[in-house]
Design brief:
The protein is built from 9 helices and 22 strands. By secondary structure, it is α/β, with parallel strands linked by helices. The chain folds into 2 domains: 2-169 and 225-304, TIM Barrel (Alpha-Beta Barrel), CATH 3.20.20.70; 310-404, Translation factors (Elongation Factor Tu (Ef-tu), domain 3, Beta Barrel). The strands form 3 sheets. The protein has an 8-stranded parallel barrel with strand order 1-2-3-4-5-6-7-11, surrounded by 4 helices. Strands 17-16-22-13-14-21-18-19 form an 8-stranded antiparallel β-sheet, with no helix packed on it. The longest helix is centred in the middle third of the chain and has 17 residues, at 260-276.
């Protein structure tokens, strides 16, 4: 498997090349989501790589709206055509631009935000033809899913297509081209600077999700890094038969300004852990195997959720979506059940407080369904996915779950 990583200066370029990394990814802050290289820094790396015959891959992985794309296209045209022979892209518009105007450049297409089936990768491989060099797959794909993609490409694509995954690095959970953090830091904000915060869940005790914003948008990462060294070296899984390239991203562990020896120690330690099939542990960040060996997305998010806000039996009626103090409570019906004036409801708040109440009033919009003036033996089946209002009850809040008592 080819080993790939990122470079931010000439020293890193020289070191990683010496350590046997077959491809080095270089970004420019105008094109790359996480690079902060300016023109001079970018050019120095390009010139060094050309002089020492080092294979560079240009990273253009930022999402581009129309005006931004036009500006970047003009800047890209000014780059020397011999600087690199491969480009990594995320935006489909960028991919099409390279296909139309730079047919000699190989494309590495990032599919980490989707493509959890084999149809998309096969279609894309045939559309790009021999210009496609590699597909970068999501770490949410299981081994079985990657095997399926690999098998279908072999069957239906007439040219070789490499598959790549992230073997070590931050696990990106969310990326939006919108600037969602800038209002939190209005003073001295500049679009080419990085803003960083940590997020916490309102529904669970999970904290410390790294948030970052720069000129390309807003990003949220898992609290732990992904590390697949064990499964990559597991002979039973035979991963090396279906994955041709693995990526190491440890930029967050070693800042660009750190001394050469410190960066070198991290790089060597990572490679040793990979060779021995051991998970790498840094002093600041824990690691997880992610979704690679078995796709456990549902299990993961069940753990992240507050269990008190999840339905758990057939008597589940719905949840509170709005509360107007001293007036009414609006609930969203999620299960068809028969309700009468004799019915008792159990309400469980997100904090775990339980309240029991008899039905005295329940209506859909302006249509009265059950109230205290009607025959209390009358039965009404509530409409699923409709909003109903009931009398106000102190202590009931948004996301309170409602059950029909037996």
């Amino acid at each position: 498997m080819k080993k790939i990583s990122y470079v931010r200066n000439v020293i890193e370029c020289e070191l990683l090349n010496h350590l046997g990394f077959e491809e080095l990814i270089v970004g420019h802050r105008d094109f790359s989501r996480f690079s902060d290289l300016d023109d001079a820094e970018f050019d120095s790396i390009v010139q060094y790589a050309l002089k020492h015959n080092i294979s560079l891959v240009f990273e253009w992985d930022a999402l581009c709206e129309e005006t931004k794309l036009r500006k970047l296209v003009e800047k890209f045209k000014a780059f020397p055509s011999f600087a690199f022979n491969k480009v990594r892209v995320l935006d489909m518009g960028v991919m099409q631009f390279i296909k139309d105007h730079y047919s000699w450049l190989k494309l590495q297409v990032i599919l980490e935000n989707g493509h959890h089936n084999s149809l998309g990768p096969v279609m894309l491989s045939n559309y790009l033809g021999g210009q496609l060099d590699r597909l970068i797959l999501s770490n949410e794909c299981s081994v079985e899913m990657i095997e399926s993609i690999h098998r279908e490409i072999k069957l239906h694509v007439p040219h070789e297509v490499e598959l790549e995954i992230l073997a070590f690095g931050p696990l990106l959970l969310f990326y939006s081209a919108r600037h969602l953090l800038a209002p939190q830091k209005l003073q001295d904000y500049q679009s080419d600077r990085f803003i960083q915060y940590y997020a916490s869940s309102e529904e669970s005790p999970h904290t410390g999700f790294p948030l970052m914003e720069n000129q390309h948008g807003t990003f949220m990462f898992n609290v732990k890094d992904i590390c697949l060294f064990k499964v990559l070296q597991d002979e039973k899984l035979r991963v090396s038969n279906i994955i041709q390239a693995i990526r190491f991203d440890f930029r967050h562990l070693a800042s660009k300004s750190e001394k050469e020896n410190e960066f070198k120690m991290i790089a060597i330690s990572l490679l040793e852990s990979f060779t021995r099939g051991l998970d790498y542990q840094s002093a600041d960040r824990q690691t997880i195997s992610g979704f690679f060996k078995t796709n456990k997305t549902s299990s993961l998010f069940k753990k992240l959720k507050n269990q008190r806000t999840l339905r758990f039996d057939e008597n589940y009626l719905g949840e509170v979506v709005d509360v107007v103090r001293e007036k009414n409570i609006t609930i969203l019906i999620k299960n068809k059940l028969n309700v009468t004036l004799k019915s008792k409801l159990i309400l469980v708040t997100p904090e775990g407080k339980r309240k029991e109440v008899s039905v005295t009033k329940l209506h859909l919009l302006n249509q009265l369904h059950i109230n205290e003036n009607q025959n209390e033996l009358q039965v009404k089946e509530l409409n699923k996915d409709q909003l109903y209002q009931m009398s106000y009850l102190s202590g009931v809040v948004f996301k309170t779950q409602i059950y029909l008592q037996n």
